[in-house]
Design brief:
Blueprint: H1 7-30, H2 41-73
């Protein structure tokens, strides 16, 4: 089985490729290239990461405080040796 690329198919792929390149060039030109004036999304990303780190720390502290009581309720002596 052989595949032959017809001239019309070649022109269609060329048009698609040109459209993708034009889109990527437009996207590159619309981004802020000045580091002194970053896009506002960077602050939102930083806020989200900091909030996630805070929530993870809060979750760990809640679990570490509640785990000995949970172990006592289920009569699991090996989980609350330190408590």
């Amino acid at each position: 089985m052989s595949f032959a690329i017809t001239p019309s198919a070649k022109n269609e792929w060329k048009a698609v490729f040109t459209e993708v390149i034009d889109y990527l060039y437009f996207f590159k030109m619309t981004r802020s290239a000045n580091p002194a004036n970053p896009p506002p999304r960077r602050g939102l990303i930083l806020l989200t990461v900091c909030l996630g780190a805070f929530m993870a720390t809060l979750d760990i502290s809640i679990v570490s405080i509640a785990l000995p009581q949970i172990a006592r309720e289920f009569h699991l002596k090996y989980l609350y040796r330190c408590a």
